[in-house]
From TrEMBL:
Its EC number is 2.8.1.13. NCBIfam families: PRK00143.1, trmU. This is tRNA-specific 2-thiouridylase MnmA. GO terms for molecular function: tRNA-uridine 2-sulfurtransferase activity. Keywords: ATP-binding, Cytoplasm, Disulfide bond, Nucleotide-binding, RNA-binding, Transferase, tRNA processing, tRNA-binding. The gene is mnmA. It is found in: Cytoplasm. The record marks H131, Q339 as: Interaction with tRNA.
Length: 374
């Protein structure tokens, strides 16, 4: 067991079992532990929002766990950062016909940026979280690797972590599996030992569709066939569709199996096609972040294009500080712009970027030809 004697760590506590056990393990290892929770919920908290993690009830439970472990606890106000970096971009991405992942933004721009800065200001040597991620200290420096529980691995959400922050982050449960974490919580008598997992987007009441509809008004438009440009249906807004979708399209010829291939808010058009039209053999990503020197990025690597998908082999065609382009050696279905393309070499997290539209020309719409991508 690693000794943390003489070192201070700010442990992010969400009121869940993983962060509770993290605080207990760090205390046992000799660290001076400070428990902290980031407050995201606004004063005018809507019903059914922030009710799992990061809620007033969760803050109460986190404080009680901190008392059980014997560490101080602080509630840190990050409401404005959460609104600016998470909630507003979430709506704007749907308005632009993209599919955002707010958990990636939350980890990148708030937890592992703002919180690390706060920890350094408080004289802490580290920030610790309950993520299922392994930190390895190697000759090359600090690396993030997949957690030992493949069902819980959360490296996908951490690709945007600033590289300079890596040495200051600890993951006490990264080498454990979920049942082991619950057993440790029970052994320590922690009140969160059997607390259920949080699944939903914390700030969204009901469904994403209902939430987005409050901010992006309905606008009737056309559904068109990707190969011919033929109008095959009508819709109430591109924000209500996602790539690959085949149900609930409301096509004029309802017997035809069609998938959403592309969303174009500029012309208010939903484009549909066959299954094969949704297969991507390559992708481009912007807003790239790398957890190693760019010169060391391997030409052959693996990429994961959604949280629950299997990584596939890919070849790097181009990469710079702004983005990268990959050839997918195993074509992927319905790769969604706005989601993350996360790069790996085996278990090691290398970085990632935000997926952009793939290269395609659309059929003519009257006298106008609309390009997708560049």
């Amino acid at each position: 067991m690693t000794s943390g004697a003489g070192r201070r760590v700010l442990c992010a506590m969400s009121g869940g079992v993983d962060s509770s056990v993290s605080a207990a393990l760090l205390k046992e290892q000799g660290y001076e532990v400070i428990g902290a929770m980031m407050r995201f919920w606004p004063d005018e908290k809507r019903v059914d929002t922030f009710d799992s993690c990061c809620s007033p009830d969760a803050a109460y439970e986190a404080r009680r766990v901190a008392d059980q472990v014997g560490v101080p606890f602080y509630l840190l106000d990050y409401r404005e950062q959460f609104r600016q970096h998470i909630m507003e971009p979430f709506i704007e991405e749907y308005r632009a016909g993209r599919t955002p992942n707010p958990c990636v933004n939350c980890n990148t721009k708030v937890k592992f940026d703002e919180l690390v800065k706060k920890a350094r200001m408080l004289g802490c040597d580290y920030v610790a979280t309950g993520h299922y991620v392994k930190r390895l200290d190697t000759e090359r420096g600090v690396e993030f690797h997949r957690g030992d529980d493949p069902r819980k691995d959360q490296t996908y959400f951490l690709w945007g972590t600033p590289r300079e922050a890596l040495p200051y982050i600890l993951f006490p449960v990264g080498t454990l599996e979920k049942p082991q974490v619950r057993a440790l919580a029970a052994d320590h008598g922690l009140l969160t030992a059997q607390k259920p997992e949080s699944q939903n987007i914390c700030f969204v009441p009901g469904t994403v569709r209902e939430f987005v509809a409050e901010y992006v008004p309905q606008a009737r438009g056309q559904i068109r066939e990707i190969h011919t440009g033929e109008v095959v249906g009508e819709h109430l807004g591109t924000q209500f569709y996602t790539l690959g979708q085949k149900k609930g399209l409301g096509l004029f010829r309802s017997h035809q199996v069609r998938h959403v291939v592309h969303l174009d808010p500029a012309s208010n058009t939903v484009w549909v096609g066959d299954y094969a039209d949704c297969l991507w053999s390559g992708l481009r990503a912007s807003a790239a972040n790398y957890l190693l020197p760019l010169s060391e990025l391997p030409e052959q690597l693996e990429v994961q294009v959604r949280y629950r998908s299997t990584p596939v082999p890919a070849r790097v065609l181009h990469a710079d500080e702004h983005g990268f382009e990959l050839e997918l050696l195993d074509p992927q279905f319905a790769v969604a712009p706005g989601q993350s393309a996360v790069l790996y070499s085996g278990s090691r997290l290398l970085g990632g970027g935000l997926i952009e539209d793939h290269i395609r020309d659309l059929p003519q719409m009257g006298e106008q030809r609309v390009p997708v991508g560049v």
